[in-house]
Amino acid sequence: MGRPSHLTKNKKSRVLNIYLKEDNRENYERLVDILDRENKSFSDFVFEHVASYVRLHEPGNPQQRLDTIIRLGKSYHAPTKICGFKDCKRVAVAVGLFKPNQKEYALCSRHLAEAKENRPSWTMLNGL
Predict the structure, then answer these.
(1) What pLDDT sits at residue 124?
(2) Which residues contact 120 (CB under 8 A, 6 or more apart)?
């Protein structure tokens, strides 16, 4: 099997060419501005998301068998992440890194808004 046409190789690494549709240009430019502000590379951003996607989807989409649902008495649902702030029981919508202690916290929408207001202390990592 040959190398895909969008993948070329030099001595140190592979180069991946992507095509940007005009519809996506504005979001791409906004993303690049955000990544520059956060001192992240586009390549690192893409492959962080690729790794997450592969981790979640590599096993395929296993369907629950009816006998398992009957045995459990219900279908399985992944547990819902809860906000990491003390005494907050809201559902988390994002993950942020609190720079002073270098810890990651799941954030509900209220605490996410507060973290975004206090940008120097937080780095947003990704959605859940």
Answers:
(1) 81
(2) 99
